[in-house]
Write a structure and sequence with these properties.
InterPro entries: HATC_C_dom (IPR008906), RNaseH-like_sf (IPR012337). The protein has 425 residues and is mostly helical. It has helices at residues 16-19, 25-32, 42-55, 61-78, 81-93, 112-121, 123-133, 138-147, 152-172, 180-199, 202-212, 232-255, 270-275, 283-292, 301-311, 322-329, 332-337, 339-350, 356-368, 378-390, 399-409, and strands at residues 9-12, 37-40.
Length: 425
């Protein structure tokens, strides 16, 4: 049974049913268990921050149309094998890699990365094929008109660079053992990289190199003269790029930090304590955990904090990171010396800041139970899901040993294609 007396934190994807102020799950849990921390998944926060450029109040109009058009192009070809075959023929004609278009999804913004990369690689073939399809398809006429817009190539370059900047943060925010202090560090790094992108010529250089390359857009100079107009860059920079990067940075500031009360535990960092010469450093911060977490004994915190503040200067602690020193506090030896601080450290260490692991479990069922496996019995489906969730990585699995065990359990009628195979004989 779940030990409800030890509940310290609750993480969710940020849906209204979870974080609603009146009847959300988090609010009801806080009413039942005072002092409970509610945290919104940082991976979802980042996704919301970057997807607001499509539907938010400060959305950039051109990029809203851009995102919608990229999705429409994917479904236009996905819905017809004839169109897909025609696009492949164009890719061969232009001597481009024969790759399929990918579709983006606003609810999972990272999925747009591959869609942007693919479209940039096959854009000449795409323009030529849309021109061909436009003779009979009204939808193709609109798509062809948009991709020939002068802003389309620099928009592709901008979105590709933004994806490259944000991709690392998406991966970090989905790590299983993500610690709350890492979130603030990664957000700071991301904002700095976006500021650098805005102030530098990275987008312009990539766009110009693409225009001037024989393997890029240079062969389209006669067919799409709008790409090569003199005023393209300044107009795109002022009306699209700068407003988008400014709004994106402000969205990130609005969404983060979402660790709430957890940020108070930064006061445990040896680096911060040693850099502050005040003898009262941390006293005010220690009152916050005592007020928010009833299980922390308020009268014991000041004395334990004073002792810990002096102890941090020792050689074995002063070089430790915040996470390392919190792990030291929850050790058996430290728990005897600092029982209340040890409990506070345990709360900080166990608080979840992402729900990606939970969502992976939901996705595992969809991955395992494909249309070809729709007749799987419940018992077999359960085993397959356990292997998919808790099993070893594909690279670490010994397939030969699995085959040996499969054939040794009982005599099989199945035979492999290798003659005189020692496993299936």
């Amino acid at each position: 049974m779940l030990p409800t007396d030890k509940l310290a934190s609750f993480a969710s994807d940020g849906a209204a049913v979870m974080i609603g102020r009146k009847a959300g799950v988090g609010k009801r849990l806080q009413d039942s268990f005072p002092g409970l921390i509610t945290v919104q998944c940082v991976a979802h926060c980042l996704n919301l921050a970057v997807s607001d450029y499509i539907k938010g109040q400060r959305a950039v109009h051109y990029l809203t149309k851009y995102a919608r058009t990229v999705g429409t192009i994917f479904w236009f070809y996905q819905a017809s094998s004839i169109r897909t075959s025609s696009l492949k023929d164009m890719e061969r004609l232009f001597e481009l890699p024969q790759i399929k278009l990918q579709g983006g999804n606003a609810s999972r913004w990272e999925s747009n990365k591959e869609a942007t990369d693919v479209m940039r690689r096959i854009l000449p073939a795409l323009i030529a094929d849309l021109s061909l399809q436009a003779r009979n398809e009204p939808t193709a006429q609109g798509l062809h008109s948009f991709v020939k817009d002068k802003f389309f190539p620099p928009a592709l370059c901008l979105m590709q660079l933004v994806h490259e900047k944000i991709h690392r943060q998406f991966l970090v925010f989905q790590k299983r053992n993500l610690f709350f202090s890492q979130v603030e560090q990664e957000v700071t790094v991301l904002k700095s990289s976006l500021a650098q992108l805005k102030e530098s010529n990275m987008v312009k250089d990539r766009w110009q190199a693409w225009l001037q390359s024989d393997a890029g857009l240079k062969p389209l100079q006669e067919e799409v003269p709008a790409y090569f107009q003199d005023d393209v860059w300044e107009s795109f920079k002022n009306t699209v790029m700068e407003p988008f990067l400014t709004a994106l940075t402000e969205n990130i500031d609005t969404r983060f930090p979402n660790t709430g009360s957890l940020s108070v535990f930064n006061v445990f960092s040896p680096r911060q304590i040693l850099s502050n010469s005040s003898t009262e450093y941390g006293d005010a911060e220690m009152r916050t955990p005592a007020e928010e977490f009833p299980r922390l004994r308020e009268f014991d915190l000041p004395s334990e904090w004073s002792s810990y503040r002096l102890r941090v200067g020792s050689p074995d602690l002063k070089t430790k990171s915040l996470e390392e020193v919190l792990l030291w506090l929850v050790s058996a030896e430290s728990a005897e010396l600092y029982p209340t601080l040890s409990l506070a450290a345990a709360i900080a260490l166990t608080a979840p800041v992402q729900t990606a692991d939970v969502e992976r479990l939901f996705s595992a069922l969809k991955i395992v139970k494909t249309p070809l496996r729709n007749r799987l019995k419940e018992r077999h489906l359960d085993f397959c899901c356990k292997v998919a969730i808790d099993g070893p990585d594909q690279e670490a699995l010994d397939y030969k040993e699995c085959m040996r065990r499969f054939y040794r359990i009982k005599k099989r009628r199945l035979k492999c294609y290798v003659s005189s195979c020692e496993m299936c004989e």
